[in-house]
Amino acid sequence: MKKLVLAAMAATVTLSAAAHDIVPGEAQQQPIVLQGGTLFTITDGVKTDTDLLLVDGKISAIGQDLEVPSDAQVIDVSGKHIYPSVIALDTTLGLTEIEAVRATEDSNEAGDITPEVSGHVAFNPDSEVIPTIRYNGVTHAQIVPQGELIAGRSSLLQLDGWTYEDMGERLNVGVHVNWPRVGISTSWWESRSPEEQRKANAEARKHLERAFVQAKAYYDAKQAGELEGTDLRWEAMLGLFDGSSTLFVHANDQRQIEEAMEFTSEYGFDWVLMGARDAWRIADQLAEAEVRVVYGAPYGLPTRHDEGFDQAFATPAALAAAGVDFAISYPGYWDVRNLPFAAGNAVAYGLDKDAALEAITLAPAKFMGVDNEVGSLEVGKQATVVVSAGDLLDPIGQKVEMMFIEGRLVDLNNRHLQLYNKYKQKP
Amino acid sequence: MISSNRLSKLAVAMCAALPALASASQTTTVQGLHDNSSDYVALQNATIITEPGRALENATLVIRNGKIERINENNRAPDGARVIDVSGHTIYPGFIDAYSNYGVAQPEKAQRGPWFSTRPQYNNKREGGNASNDAIHAHETWVDTAASDSKTAESYIQQGFTAVQSARLDGIFQGQAVTLSLADKIANDVIYRAQAQHFGSFDKGSSQQQYPNSLMGSIALIRQTLSDAQWYEQAYGKDAYQGSPVEYNAALAELGPIEQEGIVFKVSDDKSLLRAQAVFSEFDVPVTFVGSNYEYARLDAVKATNAKLILPLDFPAAPEVSGVTDSLDVDLADLRHWERAPGNAAALASADIDFSFTLHQLQKAGDFWPNLRKAVQHGLDKDRALAALTTIPAQIAGVSDKAGKIAPGYMADFVIAEGDLFTDGTIKSVWLQGQEKELAPLRQADFNGSIVADIAGQSVTFELKGDERVGGEVKVGESSSKLRSARRDEGSLSFVANANLNGNDGVWRFQLEQTAEQSFAGVAIGPNGNEVRFNGTRSETTADTATTENSPAERVEYVSRLTYPNVAYGHDGLPERQNVHIKNATVWTADEAGVLENTDILIRDGEFYRIGEDLRTPSGYTVIDATGMHVTPGIIDEHSHIAIDQGVNEASEAITSEVRIGDVVNPDDIHIYRSLAGGTTMAQLLHGSANPIGGQAQVIKLRWGATADQMKFDAAPPSIKFALGENVKQSRYPSWLSSRYPQTRMGVETLMRDGFTAALEYRAAQEAYRKLSRSEREKVAPPRPDYRLNTLLEILDKERFVHAHSYVQSEILMLLRLAEDFDFTLTTFTHILEGYKVASEMAKHGAGGSSFADWWAYKFEVYDAIPQNACLMAEKGVLTSINSDSNDLQRRLNTEAAKSVTYCGMSEHEALQMVTLNPAKQLKIDQYVGSIKEGKHADFVLWNNHPLSSYARVEQTWINARNFFNRERDEQLRAELQSEKQALIQKVLADPAAQNGAANGYKREQPAWHCDTEHDTWLGTFTAHAHGGH
């Protein structure tokens, strides 16, 4: 039995300043016991002074004073906060390196209807951005093509690995639709009259409907063996019709959401609502219809002038109060690292702290269809664990000291630490 | 009655015949015969409103030679005059529109297209002594090309107008207007005032020149141009300082006497009215404003300008709310304005502000009177309304000596109306220079009612209805038949109908003529072609439906509140200043005292008075029990772009140090309130980063409800925005458009060096001029005052402090060394994401750094940005702050500061200082604000929790001991706003005419400005800001 001192572990973080020494973690070689931590299990409350046994990339035991296997590495985490996987939904991590430099941008394919593209295909595991996201405790991210009406398919990746193949938690989870605009803009850059706007909105809606009619027709013809050729667009949407794939509808306005609810129920899709700024306005209906909601504006201004200044902050609490099944996302790429703080901000505006944690762990795992693997600290689940010296959701608490993804110890070093350590040495 | 009808018809015929001969003027040679027709006319039995508030009953107006000869109160018509009986009618002075483009050439349409569609044009073509900016047309005197235009005149005359003040409505200085009659005569005979007021606006109009592309740029251009005009008066004819003659400049020459002539200036809202007043009053130029009908929202400030207004009557159409979800797109502010815009004139009248009305902006001239009557229903006094059409516009147009009243010697310009025009009257005719323009017959037969006649021995009843179009039926015994092919003129009505009269069954033709009030004479032609004459008598009159529709409605009652600003969450007034005792708080002083537990604060006269434990409450103090709460100083944001109207960048030229954010502060911006709700009390509003040397900054206190001027923190020394790197070298422009110097970081350095060098040489020239003898000054012109260079001199004189947008270490070093070369200290580098790389160099120079907490990767120059930047800078002795540059982040700078605790272990006290005391120091206002210290302003925030925590929420925000945000009040307000909005929606839904009115009649939402928002506010083009681009 080796007793590893935490400081020594943390030291791997700060050793060198070279650009590409951040090596993906090795597969777990021996059992690891995290001893005496405060476990935020999500499914079974908060357990203080509790041990966690990780074996072969899985959580094999949780309890106080667990018996330590003879070959185990024991890490004292007493007083530390232990979390399950933190899952960032709705990101372009690995697709965008520097937004203003077009050559580094791989998120937006040409055309309105591009369900055939998949986020993981262009994913750059060596993006300098990714290690900075892990550093704040995020273990997984959904990689989402941007684009117009039907944007493409997203994949859920672990944020440590050599290629998207070994990082893939689940590839091609579902198809993303950006719901067509509704309503009338009075912004001063809007030069179209209300009438023209209504017409354009209706036309975009028609365009989307036609695409789904085509996709369904293709599916039916394929079932009947009546296809005369392959169409990659409709191939990509087949899973929507047999239930093997999820439809992610990005919609913020109440009217968009209502339209999407009606549309998806007509088709009987398995679907998730993304964005959902106005979800608070129809929270009861969403709860009633059991719509899963990924709320995307935990930081953000009110949508409309007359809304309360804290409407965006307070929406998660409103969803929770109505019994909506929701997760919290913070869409983007470099700023995804603020996801835990964003969840914390929702607590300031009325959300229960446990619910906030669940909204970035178990809820997204469920929506991605991987909750049997990740999302909570439960025996049998993946050994994906985040160790922080303090409260992960609070900037004055968070200090992520260790991260395991499927039992692999993740290097928390990153471009920022490297530059920090380099320039600390400048006279 | 019939006879006078005929007479008036004859008069019309005579008038109509006149122009063919009468058009000869005094200097035109006569072709053929001379026209010496008599135009000696007496209008008898009239009610004459000689001027607002003065009515003569039963009087006679005598006119001759196009002028009013006299008014006979005894109603006697002079011998020899053609007499017209106008009994039952009222004569008003002819109406004057003081804001028109009648009779002058129209501008070419400005090219409007996407931002990158045309090559930028920096300089204009110089010709004929024009100004150096194509938005300045001051050299134009519109009398030179004015010409009558009977077709356009028609639409004015229909509404009763007889004269207009007119110029081409294009650009910033639009040239000098001409006041002219709308009579259909040669131009020489219609000019009432050849050189009336100048016209102007902030909009550059058809100019394709880049400068100005923002509102503040337009204001700066006005300021420089007025200064140039003053300079030109002394300079022209002399040699410039270096020896070459001062250029000929017709535009400046024409602007010389503008202090006497005045300017009519069009503004888009109440805020811009106050802005225009501010800049023109610097040069003592009297301004008449073409208003927006938003003036009621800032009535006191508008009153204080002492200016007259010209009001368009294009009230906005109500926002669409009839659909079940339509109201999602509707702001309370717009609903409020819909309700109150028609009451603007009444509000101005109640404040005793003079105003006139204009047809300008009305899409349909025919809406003028219905809208004016609406203004009367909203409480506008009728005499005021008449003054707004007559005496006031006459003053504005400089023709009070000849128009706007009915008085001897005045032009014979008047309106004859039946009934009260301000409730339901109709204009019958308009007289221009003694010539009648008939709109409707003075008298017209009235066929309404049941007219009974005996035709061929049988009793026939005509049931008739209608004035212009008459309908009804013919009844014979039990049978009746509908009128067909009805046609009427002033005196008679003809129609056909089926009838069986005396056995003649078929289609009869009838004609009726009124002979007396209730008597009619008629002719009927039977199916057999025989003619029967008959007389008829009216037995009863049907109600005149037209007049009941126009009958004065009840005085309008408002359901909306009027707040400051007049948008949702506005205050009823400035919150009251209180003396306060805060008890038992955790006090984060952000000063040497550090964090104090269980501490009391006494606030007296707007300042922190005592800080200590268990203090006694003096009498009259408001007590706040802050047990469990935290108190911090108000948060100060070094880098903000909220509360700015119409452009954050004057992105046209590379140096625009003359433009001032202070000129365009937007006190109505909801982000002021939202920032207060996040604990922010002060912000430095910075120009964007499109230019190496941008505009002047403005430090404000977020006094929600105050005017723009009241928000400015005058104790803050002047500051200015510089910018370096990708934005200023136009990195995201397509290469074919990037012609502006500089395009590299090398050029940024030389451009700045050139600017400062030019400023110093300008000063040398001024000093040399001062030393010239009086006789030498006869020949040598003074150097032209230059606002741009003056601002650069203020920097060199250490009177204005530089906040420089910067990212990478090379440019930071460059600017440090440049500043050292010119012997000034760079005050603050803002953004400064690579500050950590040159922190010791910055510290040595004495420059501060104001950074983002954790932004990076959104563009190449921030690829080396790190969240430990603030720590490294602070550790090396750089005065460091955290800013927002974002209307969202500005609401949570507390947790942004906390990130230095997260990433690099800064102490919490120091982290809080980064958003309080340190930015106060960077703005050089730390003797007033930035920490909780006895004697400083009582700007503070009450938090429910540790102020750096995710879980912290603002309970109250105070500025100078006034409570500007209070969470409980906010909750209450939300409910009130909700019911107010519903009441307004009900009002819209209940009003069948709600959708009539101007489209786009509301203030438009301002974009969320960012450093790199490049936008031409006048051409309506702008570059979309990239997510995260700063």
TrEMBL record, chain A:
Residues 346-392 form the Amidohydrolase-related domain. The keyword Hydrolase applies. Coiled coil: none annotated. Residues 1-19 form the signal peptide. Keywords: Hydrolase, Signal. One of its GO terms (molecular function) is hydrolase activity, acting on carbon-nitrogen (but not peptide) bonds. The keyword Hydrolase applies. PANTHER family: ALPHA-D-RIBOSE 1-METHYLPHOSPHONATE 5-TRIPHOSPHATE DIPHOSPHATASE. This is Amidohydrolase. It comes from Pseudidiomarina atlantica.
Automatic annotation (TrEMBL), chain B:
It holds the Pfam family Amidohydro_1. CDD domains: Met_dep_hydrolase_C. Keywords: Hydrolase, Signal. One of its GO terms (molecular function) is hydrolase activity, acting on carbon-nitrogen (but not peptide) bonds. Residues 364-435, 875-954 form the Amidohydrolase-related domain. Residues 1-22 form the signal peptide. Gene3D superfamilies: Metal-dependent hydrolases, Urease, subunit C, domain 1. The keyword Mitochondrion does not apply. The keyword Zinc does not apply. Transmembrane segments: none annotated. It comes from the Bacteria. InterPro entries: Amidohydro-rel, Metal-dep_hydrolase_composite, Metal_Hydrolase, Metallo-dep_Hydrolase. Coiled coil: none annotated. This is Amidohydrolase.
